[in-house]
Design goal:
Number of domains: 1
Structural class: alpha+beta
CATH class: Alpha Beta
CATH topology: Outer Surface Protein A, domain 3
CATH architecture: Alpha-Beta Complex
Number of strands: 6
Largest sheet: 3 strands, antiparallel
Helix content: 25-40%
Strand order of the largest sheet: 5-1-6
Number of helices: 3
Radius of gyration: 13 Å
Shape: globular
Low-confidence stretches: none
Mean pLDDT: 94
Length: 89
């Protein structure tokens, strides 16, 4: 599943952590450093495998497959909160 950021999510990176405001404005979500890296790469849309391949050099002790699994779970969570949406990217 390729996803990109939902256009109605307000976000800003502060001290290397992305702060997101939920689409309905009721919740502030703070992402950790890895979540922020993924969030930044979702500007144009991407798939979990592509993100894992791109980020894998930063995490020497983690295989691309494990990284992809973790990213996929993170993307599902973001999707459930309305923070990302599916795309054809």
């Amino acid at each position: 599943m390729a996803v990109r950021r939902s256009p109605n999510v307000i976000h800003e990176v502060v001290d290397e952590r992305a702060m997101l405001v939920s689409p309905d404005g009721s919740e502030l979500i703070s992402l950790n450093a890895v979540g922020t890296l993924v969030w930044e790469l979702l500007a144009d849309g991407a798939e979990a495998r592509d993100l894992a391949t791109h980020l894998s050099p930063r995490f020497e002790d983690v295989t691309v497959d494990v990284l992809e699994k973790d990213i996929r779970a993170f993307l599902v969570s973001l999707h459930e909160q309305g923070l990302v949406q599916e795309t054809d990217a």
